[in-house]
Amino acid sequence: MKSRIVSDNVFKYERQPVIVTAYGKDHELPVRTTAFCDRQDDIDRRIADTSKSRTSAEVTALLREGVALFIGAEETERIFPEAETEMLDVDEITLFYGYLKNQSLKNLREYTQKYAPRLR
């Protein structure tokens, strides 16, 4: 079903599922509820906290937690096994987490393009 946003000055929002295909499976990303956003913000703050000296393994553990927020613990374990933390490609998990965050904003970006005031 195609979203219809503004028709005759009526606002209508119909959330479309955001599905990403990664590592051989489709993953429907969770709705960006306040609880979800708070958890994501907490993970991002802990990753960015430079007041603590973190090892790459500690940062990778936080990235795994972030990925799990989007696709679940079981899928995260399948893709990035905790037992192999020291062998995981830090760039890969960092980029995948960023990709998931970016894709989760897909609906917001699409609706913003339709509703946002345009500079003339």
Helix content: 40-55%
Count of discrete domains: 1
| pLDDT averaged over residues | 88
Strand segment tally? 4
Distance between the termini: 32 Å
Beta content comes to 5-15%
Largest sheet, described in full?
2 strands, antiparallel
The geometry reads as globular
How would you concisely characterize the structure shown here?
With 120 residues, the chain is mainly alpha-helical.
How would you sum up this structure, described in words?
With 120 residues, this protein is mainly alpha-helical. 52% of the residues lie in helices and 10% in strands. The protein has 5 helices and 4 strands, in the order ββββααααα. It has a two-stranded antiparallel sheet with strand order 1-2. A two-stranded antiparallel ribbon has the order 3-4. A hairpin with a 2-residue loop joins strand 1 and strand 2. Helix 1 (34-48) runs antiparallel to helix 2 (56-71) and helix 2 (56-71) runs parallel beside helix 4. The radius of gyration is 17 Å and the shape is globular.
